[in-house]
Design brief:
heterodimer; A: 513 residues; alpha+beta; seven-stranded mixed sheet; six-stranded mixed sheet; 17 helices; B: mainly alpha; 15 helices
Chain lengths: 513, 325
């Protein structure tokens, strides 16, 4: 009997193996070429389908990556994230700092050929300011009193109070200019802007394709088109890059990025404006004493958190990450871990043996969150601060974070090229995130008011240096590090600049060799 | 009342009534669980920027997403839509859930069928091999292989395969945009190969164990001894008498596995970027798109119920004793 069964069983098993291996062996030749990019198209891998397609509602990085290719903004960003000319030249500002006059470049059109003029800008800005449109960029326009279009090339924005951060807001994709005669419902389905590429097709959860906009005002885009392809798994994304199926992606996980960059794939680490922080709510009873918060600052070794949780892919930071206003990371009461000093602060706070602290974190938000929390738990344990970790679902975390319902939290917060945009919402007594920050003071209120009213760069810098000093001297939070992002692309790709935050603002110049 | 009781005593009618109750239960449970979990579509799509929305903006967003109405109204509204053929809208992609499902379901069904084929091709011969010499080296080796395939997590096998093939052979078809079987059969089959293999391997183990146990059980039955004594050739004996009778529990097992696969092989679909029904539910959950999750889960539940009914029917075909009951 066995003699009968043996061949049949073996034959079937062999057949199965052949089916699997045969496919892979044959496939090697058939698909390993760069068919996708051979037609001059660049394939950009994204980890999720963008959830927003109206420019003023964008928040997700995927939506920004896609829509920044479709829409143009009044101002662009330079290599240091500073505002430079975009659709308009840099504005002339009146002496009282209240009137901004923008002159649009000549001959700009939308990708459908219709002219882009000042009425489109006025329409876009007024849409953003209308609460009905639920714009995430509305806060950039909080100081705007009126927008006028005296002639086709001129836009005059009048502010109700001086606001030096206003121009930097106009560089965001969520202020992209839309045609004044387009219905939002139509734009949501088929975005129409004046960017380097024009909307072509979308397959939900799979891909979005764009085609070259030959009338782009900045020049001729480098590729015939772009395809944003959804590949949810980062390791699978690396495989797709290796085989040339995907030409470009942005990774944030340092381990994955390390496995990607070899041979015909280049991985470039770039700085980020965002920052990891141990948020302490000074308004909660546990942390109301400044000595308690300073004890935490002194017990934490920021470099150790970077090395253990982020595998060294980050830089220790102070509060402000805006390139032109960057805080000195060493300028704080405890720039390095100092356990003796931490114990002194604990004694001064009346808790020489430490205390219990609840620390909120979330696994789902970003890859290193729980590792950071555990590193900090171990460090604080050395001075007797007993940290109880609360690892939450991301929805629960965001809810409690927004409500200020925590004592301490591990957070990765977005930064900005402008320090006022970055922190006024947190650390002023009327800021929208005051509940989250848990710290404000009359002196900070005064400094933020002064900073936003000052246009001279050197003077502004001095003001925000004082803001930064107060934040660390009071240990409002403990700022840990700014992470690295990784631009990973086909080595044959030329023209793409490695910008802060892995911005794809220069993607239009890129081509595949 | 007596008429109702009489109707319910008929097996098919009773099964259908049970199915309806199950489906309503599933839909209610999904509805409630979705809303009890912290966070809603506003925080899901705006993230922390939701903190900067004014109360007016939040009210208008709640109305837009339809989450401003009381729960019973939301549930009945959704149910009414479903009964009239409207599964709701995915606001993130601006597409109806019916259209999304119509796109995703065939991919999942194809993947499930291929995975079952791989699972059966590995499992049944493996089970026969193991049962041929129970307790001997061949049996031990097969069992060890089966244990391994069961204990290696799918996500690990999937990632390892994808990385190895891309690095060593420069082959990773799933990086190309997904093509359906109709659009590009050759590329589609290549894209299905890895996920089907990964899923097939995980199914092979229970199939193998079931086959082995069943064969050993059947072989000791009197009718096999009788057939052998009658002079039935060994090959015929194995196939017609032993294997055929041993397949009954394998069919049941396969039906169950197929049901699970239809509910979306989440890990495989996610890693290999197969736009199937599992990924649709996951995306719906991530973006807190209530209509997407509720309707897709309902579609999955309907399929599950149908597959179970079908398994019962096949069971009746294979085993005459069941027909009599």
């Amino acid at each position: 009997m066995p003699s009968v069964r043996r061949p049949s069983a073996r034959a079937t098993a062999a057949l199965t193996l052949c089916a699997a291996l045969g496919l892979s062996a044959c496939g090697g030749g058939a698909t390993s070429g760069t068919a996708a990019s051979g037609d001059g198209r660049i394939v950009v891998g994204i980890s999720a389908d963008p959830t927003q397609t109206l420019p003023w509602t964008v928040t997700s990085k995927q939506a920004i990556q896609v829509l920044s290719q479709v829409y143009s903004t009044l101002l662009d960003t330079g290599a240091n994230s500073e505002p430079v000319a975009g659709l308009a030249e840099l504005p002339t500002v009146s002496d009282d700092g209240l009137t901004y006059t923008f002159t649009l470049k000549q001959g700009v059109t939308f990708s459908d050929g219709s002219a882009l003029d000042s009425t489109d800008v006025k329409h876009t800005f007024e849409t953003i300011m209308d609460p009905e449109s639920k714009a995430t960029s509305a806060s950039y326009f909080a100081s705007v009193a009126s927008v006028e279009a005296p002639d086709a090339q001129t836009v005059v924005v009048t502010l109700s109070r001086p606001d030096a951060s206003f121009p930097s807001g106009l560089t965001g994709t969520n202020t992209g200019i839309v045609p004044s005669d387009a219905d939002p419902a139509t734009l949501e389905k088929t975005p129409l802007g004046s960017g380097p590429y024009a909307w072509d097709t979308r397959t939900p959860n799979q891909s979005i394709t764009l085609k070259r906009n030959d009338s782009y005002y900045g020049g001729t885009p480098g590729a015939a088109g772009l395809e944003f392809r959804v590949i949810p798994d980062e390791q699978a994304m690396v495989s797709a890059l290796r085989t040339g199926a995907v030409d470009l992606t942005v990774l944030d996980d340092p381990i994955t990025a390390r496995t990607a960059g070899t041979g015909k794939v280049t991985s470039t680490a770039v700085d980020s404006l965002s920052y990891h922080a141990l948020q302490l709510r000074a308004s909660s009873p546990t942390l109301s004493d400044v000595n308690t918060r300073l004890a935490i600052q002194c017990a934490v070794s920021r470099q150790e958190v970077v090395d253990s949780a982020a595998l060294g892919a980050g830089e220790v930071t102070g509060p402000i990450t805006s390139p032109q206003y960057r805080s000195d990371p060493a300028a704080q009461p405890c720039p390095e871990q100092d356990l003796a000093k931490a114990k002194q602060y604990l004694a001064a706070a009346g808790t020489p043996d430490g205390f219990d602290l609840k620390l909120m974190t979330s696994q789902g938000l970003y890859s290193t969150a729980v590792d950071e929390a555990q590193a900090i738990q171990a460090q604080l344990g050395k001075v007797g601060i007993r940290v109880q970790l609360e690892s939450l679902d991301s929805g629960d975390y965001v809810d409690r974070w927004l409500a200020g319902d925590f004592d301490a939290a591990i957070a990765l917060n977005g930064g900005s090229a402008d320090p006022n945009t970055m922190y006024a919402r947190y650390f002023t007594s009327k800021g929208s995130f005051q509940k989250v920050a848990g710290y404000s003071s009359p002196s900070l209120d005064r400094l933020f008011t002064e900073g936003v009213a000052t246009t001279d760069p050197a003077e502004r810098k001095a003001v925000y240096a004082q803001v930064s000093d107060e934040l660390v001297d009071q240990a409002a939070w403990v700022w840990l590090f700014t992470p690295k992002l990784f631009l990973v692309h086909d080595s044959a790709m030329q023209g793409l600049e490695a910008r802060t935050d892995a911005s794809l603002s220069t993607l239009w110049k890129a081509s595949l060799g | 009342m007596t008429r109702l009781r009489a109707a319910l005593s008929r097996p098919l009618v009773r099964r259908l009534a049970e199915a309806v109750v199950t489906l309503v239960g599933v839909s209610l449970l999904t509805f409630v669980v979705l809303r009890v979990v912290p966070g809603d579509q506003i925080t899901a799509s705006y993230g922390i920027a939701a903190g900067e929305l004014s109360p007016d903006q939040i009210r208008s967003l709640e109305a837009y997403y339809g989450i401003d109405r009381p729960w019973p109204v939301q549930y009945l509204g959704w149910l009414g839509g479903v009964l009239s053929g409207n599964l709701g809208l995915s606001t993130a992609s601006g597409t109806s859930v019916a259209a999304l499902t119509a796109q995703a379901l065939p991919n999942t069904v194809e993947l499930a069928v291929l995975a079952i084929v791989v699972g059966l091709l590995l499992g049944i011969p493996g089970g026969m091999l193991a049962a041929s010499r129970p307790g001997r080296a061949r049996d031990g080796a097969t069992q060890l292989g089966s244990l391994l395939s069961l204990s290696v997590p799918s996500f690990l096998l999937a990632t390892a395969l994808a990385t190895f093939l891309a690095n060593q052979l420069g082959w990773y078809p799933n990086g190309e945009g997904y093509r359906t079987l109709l659009e590009d059969p050759w590329l589609n089959l290549q894209q299905m190969a890895l996920p089907a293999l990964v899923l097939g391997v995980s199914i092979a183990s229970p199939v193998l164990q079931t086959t082995r146990t069943a064969i050993l059980g059947v072989r000791s039955e009197d009718f096999v001894r009788t057939a052998r004594a009658k002079g039935v050739p060994p090959r015929l004996l194995q196939v017609r008498h032993v294997l055929r009778n041993a397949l009954i529990p394998v069919v049941t097992m396969t039906g169950l596995q197929f049901g699970f696969l239809l509910s979306g092989a989440l890990v495989a679909e996610q890693i290999f970027a197969v736009p199937g029904i599992g990924r649709q539910v996951l995306l719906g959950l991530q973006q807190k798109e209530y209509a997407v999750v509720q309707s897709t889960v309902l579609v999955i539940a309907v399929m599950f119920v149908l597959v179970n009914l079908l398994t019962d029917l096949v069971y009746r075909l294979v085993d005459p004793r069941v027909r009599a009951r």
